[in-house]
Structures are given as C-alpha cells and as structure tokens.
Amino acid sequence: MPKVKEHEVKKVDRAHQSLLASIVESSEDAIIAKTPEGVITSWNPAAAAMYGYTAAEMIGKPISILEPSDRPHEMEEILRKLRKGERVEHYETTRRRKDGKTIYISLTVSPIRDSSGRLIGASSSARNITERRRVEEQQLATSNYARSLIEASLDPLVTISPEGKITDVNEAAVKVTGVVKERLIGTDFSDYFTDPDKAREGYRQAFAEGSVTDYPLTIRHQDGQLTDVLYNASVYRDVQGNVLGVFAAARDVTAQRQAAQYARSLIEASLDPLVTISPEGKITDVNEATAKVTGVPRDRLIGTDFSEFFTEPDMAREGYRQVFAEGSVTDYPLTIRHQDGQLTDVLYNASVYSDVQGNVLGVFAAARDVTAQRQTTQYARSLIEASLDPLVTISPEGKITDVNEAAAKVTGVPRDRLIGADFSDFFTEPDKAREGYRQAFAEGSVTDYPLTIRHRDGQLTDVLYNASVYRDVHGNVLGVFAAARDVTENRRVMREFAETKNFLDNILQSSTKYSIIGKDLNYRILSWNEGARLNYGYAEEEIIGMDSSILHSPEDIQAGVVDRMLKVAYEKGLAEGEFQRVRKDGSRFVASVVVTRRNDASGNPVGYLLMSTDITEKKLAEERLRFASQYARSLIEASLDPLVTISPEGKITDVNEATAKVTGVERDRLIGADFSDFFTEPAKAREGYRQAFAEGSVTDYPLTIRHKDGQLTDVLYNASVYRDVHGNVLGVFAAARDVTAQRQTTQYARSLIEASLDPLVTISPEGKITDVNEATAKVTGVPREQLIGTDFSDYFTEPDKAREGYEQVFSKGFVTDYPLTIRHRDGRLTNVLYNASVYRDAQGNVLGVFAAARDVTAQREAEAKVTEQRAREEQRARELERLAELERFQKLTVGRELKMVELKKEIEELKRENAKFRGDFLTEKAGR
Fold this sequence. Notes:
Helix content: 25-40%
Shape: extended
Oligomer: single chain
Number of helices: 32
Number of strands: 35
Structural class: alpha+beta
Radius of gyration: 45 Å
C-alpha cells in the first residue's frame, strides 16, 4: 500500500511539474531562474525574445550581463533582499538587450526554497513596458508643451470654461491681477475687470460665435491698478471636436488707448470744421463742426468725395491736390454748401500728415468761417437786442461791455450803469461767477453753467449760462458772450423729478441678479433691466413692446397658470410662485416670480411689475480635457494673433492659422522653413530669436512681416523659450501683435503733455528741462522756450532739494509725493507735490524723468493748522502728566513721614523692654 501511495505522489508531482514547465514556456513574461549568487539556471522563450539571448547563451552566465551601465549595483541589491527572505514586486527598472538597446521592464523577483525552507535560488518575471513608458513620456512631453506655450507668452493668457470659470492661467495673468494662480483657477473670469458684465458678455460671444477680436476690457489689479487690454479669444476643442472652453490672450493697450483718445479729442475739441482727406480725395475723418456746417452726419461724410460739399468742386479738388504736391496750403478760400442750401465762406489751412515711416497718409485741413468774422459786430448787436433771455458781453478783465433789456430787468439796474461794472457783482456767488467767465476764456465756452442773479431789491433768479468767446477778424479773443436762461421753477421741478427717476433707475438697473420687468395690462413689456437681459438673453431693444408670453412655457400658458397669477396680482396687488421660463435661445429655467400691480397717480391699475430670479441649479462642469496634445493644438489655433515656435536652428516648428494668413503661406510649407525668411529684415528677425534663446525672452521686438503678395504688416513680438519636462530648452514661442494702428496714433503723444492742467515737465539726466506744458509756464511765469534747456532746480525755493528729487528718480525709477515749493518770477510761491518716474526709449534705455506737480498750497495751510493744534494738545498733556507726578510725590512723602512715626514708637517700646529685662536680671543675680 505505501508503494502505491508513493507511486501516485510521484505521478501527480510529475504532472504538476509538467504543467508548471508548460506555463513557463508559454508565458509572455520573461521568466528566469538563478542561484542565490545570481547565476542563471533557466531561461524561457519570452526571455530570449525580450533580451535577444538564447537559453544556451545565458544558462550558467551571471544575471549581471543584463544590468545597464547606469545601474551597476541594482541586481546585487535585489539578490541581497532575496537572501534576507524579502520579495521584490512590480519594480520598474531598465535592462540591456544583446544588441545594446535599453528597455524598460516591470520586474517581480521571488525566492526559491527547498523542502526544508533553505534558499536555493530566485525566480524573476519581467514584462516589457518600453512602449508604455514611451507613450507616457510622450503624453508628459505634450502636456509640458501645452504648459510651456502658456508660460512662454508675455501676454496674459487664460482658459475659460463654458460656465465662465478660469481653468488655467500663465504667469503674466498672475502679474496683471496680483492674484496667485491657485486662487485664480476656479473663480469667475469676470471678477477681475472693472466691467464684469462686459467681460462676461465677451467670453459668451466667443462661445456663441467661435471667436472675438480686439475685445476691450480693463483689468483691475488687487492693489487697484487698472490695465486697459484688448482680448483676442476663440474656442478650443477636444479630439471629437466638442468645445471645451475659450482661450483668451490679452494685449496691454493702455498707451495706445490714451494716444487714440487724445487724437479723437484733438479733432472734437476744435470749434472749426476739421477734416482728413485720403490721397484719392475721400474724407477719412471729420469733427462735429464739419457735420454741422455741411448738415451731413459724420458717418455719411466719411468715404465721400471732399469736393462734393463746395460751391466750386474743381477748386476744392485743386486745393487738396496742391497740399499733396507742396505739403501745405494757407488761407485757401472756399465756400461750403449746407445740404439745406446755406453757404459758408471759409479759409482752409491744410497740410499732409504721415505715418511713423514718413509715408504720406493724407491731408489734415482746418476751415475758419470768415462770414461770421465779417459780420461779427452787427450779428452780436442783433443777438443782444433780439433775445428775451438776459444777454451780456464780458471783457477779459471781467467788466460788462454790453447787455440787453432782459439783463437790466433781471438785475434791476439800468443798462448804462451795468456797462463798465464787474460782471460778478450781480450774483449771490461772485467767485463762482468770476470762475465761469474765466473758464469760458480758458476753454472757449461753457455750457449750462449754474448761477443765481440777485436783483437790487433782493429777489433771486436761478439761471443757466451758456457762454463762449468771440473774436475779431484776426481771430483774437475780444471777450465772452453769455446768455442766461431762467430755470428757477424748472430747476425745482426737474430736481425733484431727477431725484425720483434716478432713485428708481438705480433700483431697476443695479439689480443684475433679479429680472425686473414692467408691462401693461395687455401683457406688453414696457421696461427691461440688466438682470432680465442676463437671465433671458434678450437685449432691451429686442423685447420692449413684445408680448410677455414669449417668456412663459407653452404648457403654463395653455394650463392658464399665467392668467391666474396675473388675475391674483390685479385683484390683491401681489402674486408669487415658481414657474418655467423660456430664454431667447429656447432653453428653460425655473424662476421664482413675484408680480405686483402698478397703479397710476390716481390709484388706477395700469400694469404689472415682475421680479424673478433663476433658481435652477447650474449644469455640471463639462468633461475635462482628454488629451493634452489637443489642448496644445487648440491653444495655438485659438489665438487670433500670429503664433510660431522656433527651433534652436531658427526653423519654424509650429504655427497657427493667423501666421499662415499674415504670410500668405500654407502651414505645411511654413513648418521647416527659416523663421527669418518672412520678414523685411531677415537679419533683424534672426537676431530677435537668438536674443530670446540667449536671454530667455524678448518683449515688444519690432519686425515687419512680408505677405507673399507684398503686403507689409508691422508687428511687435513677445517671445520666450519653452522647455521639456527636464527643463531643457526646446525652442522659442513667439506671439506677434499687429501694431500698425498703434504706431500711427503715437504721433499724437507730444500733445499729451499739453492736455494736463497740472504742471508737467521732462528732465534730462543732466537735470536740464527738455519739455514743459503751459501749466508749468504759468506757475513759473517763464515762457516755454525760455524754460527749455535751463536747470530744473532753478525754479524752486530749495534748489538742492529739487536736484536731489530728480536724482532720486534716476536712481530708484520714481518718486511719489515729493514736496517742493515753486517760485514764480514775481516772487509768488506755490507748494506742490511731485510724482515722477523715468521714461525710456524702445530699447529700454532711460531718456529722462517725467514729473507731474499737484498744487497743495491749501492742503499745507490746513496741515499747519492741524500741527499747531496738535502741539497745543501735547503741551497740555505734558502739563497734566507733571501735575500727576507731583501728586504721586506728595503721597510718597506723606507715607514716609507716617512710617518714621511708627518706627520711633517701636524703638521706644524696645528701650522699655530692655530696661525691664536688665532690672530683672540684676535682681535675680543679687538674690543668688
């Protein structure tokens, strides 16, 4: 019987071993057995396929043959763990094949023991994970490429979810908002702008239309600093083409906007008709005075022939041609025909204007009406005598030079006594009246200037003055002509009306969370607030006058719930409930609605007021990006600016559609070509990307792109390097912004200094004045041409302090609220605070200091009074402290005196006890 059992056991054992051998031989994993010292004892076919060695080549050889050079002790460490009885599982490492190639493997090593538990070897199972690692590294590289694209841009970049949440930003976005990246992500994109609703409308437009171009917004830094930007934004998609979000790039246009605004102001500030004319004789721009003198609106004037608006078109045509030929014309006579037939004789002064390269862009022409100049005296006299409103003419010294009967009536003073008197003497606020006509002299006119005339019997009349200067035939200002309109009663009524209307309008329009809708009894919509626009999607002009039923679901209308709600509101004055509402796009949401009945002044019902708010939960966020490569591609294609990546050899490695468009070359032909080949100055383009590789980035690098049809585009490149996962530089990422318009507007920059009412000055590194505005000439009493070239410090009571001020600016870059006192040449002093900073050329070199002064004389006087009062309070405090100190000293002295009395008593008591003790001692001694 035992023999049978032993036989059966051996039979089962052989079957088991055969099964194990079959598994080892057929396994796709490389299974290797080795001794405790690492000598190979078995080698399956998968090991031969994986490592390239046959079993005959490897059995009896050390396992260290497979060890790569960069891991010299790894196998010995694994064997050491096995000898200690440990197991190595799913350990990822590398091995060297017979052909020298390195492969990645996932390794499991187990000890082999005999029946007594003694370690006799080790078995390892390895799986080739090279392909998996390659895919993972490729995905990581692709993801890093996407990250590098964002961080490489010097413009603020942001990605926005369909719910308007920020999903990604670059460092430039962090810098312009002052908020760290982890706090930006997940917040509302619109929260960081001065106009959140406009920001929200911008990204919604991008989702609706696919993109927006040059969308203007103003970013608010957390410290309050504002930055004007233009956003280019477009949607980006996953591999299935589903929209994931919006990618938006902002370009700082603060300086450009200031220049453009100033250019527009120059044209509109003139009371003379101004016009710009193209080389083809077409009108390209006009001011309001031109529209007024022709009777044709500005949008209809632009694009028409300049010569069409004159009685002699050929002469008008000859005039602007003469300007193009000679550069300018002076006092060129023409007669403008208004569309109603009225004629105006004018003299034109005109000259060419050019772009930054000196190319002539057109003619700028200013017309002066000479008809009015010839008839000035008669017309002025007629105006004064014909008007029922009080009219007056005022000299530059503020004296009345003429009045009409209405002025005599409202003041109660005869005309002959008014003429020669001070204009300001007849008002309740003489200083304000004086400021009014001075403003007219300074600015050319004032409109609706409020004053109160005092009749000599004490009666007061509220008026609004419209005033403007009048001139002689040479254009010299002679005085101010002012007309007053009695608004005493109108002002009271309008003030009450305006206050009420403003209060109601503020309530209506400031609510963006709630829809507030007014409608009449026939359900016709009469008013529509911003909250209603945001909730329903209809603009005010689309919805006013419409039946409000378009906002209700058909089911609610058919069920009669809408009529029942309005009936309750009509009868009881109020109704409320929750209803399905329908947006413009057909989507629905649940709203909490409160309806109140509107009554007229007599209490009769005239309509309803509906207040509602969306109480539908927002949809879950769209699925996350699936593939980093699609994200990277979308980032490039989402930008409307030309984007390009450049290899260290200067070859283009990637572009977006905007680059293909601006060069006229297809993307597949651009990739691999030299970056510098597409510019008017290839050497300068080459130097630009080399500078980016050398320094890490370049900012606003100017180049001109040449389209294949010859068209030129001026751009500024912002470029920086991008890196792989190990930090190695892979190339340069460059973004171009078209600055053609910006360059043209910068020619107006010179006039910015003249626009300020504060004294402005520019100072050279040597401390010389290089430019000033009229306010500086006024505060010093020195003409501009005499100021320029002199020492800045010469015009202050403390020249050394003034010199120290601008030297501090050159040293630190700026100063704020730097106190100085300007001395007028007549001896008058003006206390000012200077804010100053350096300004630079296009290459960043410091050219000088720009300083703006603010008059703080009144502020200083107030501060001096405060200081004096504070000194008196401090003196009083010191006196009170001294009194308290004396009181404490007195208490201390009295306390010491009381203590001395107690000590004297204690000493006397001790003396008595001592005498008694001595007496007792002597008595006792005598007894012995």
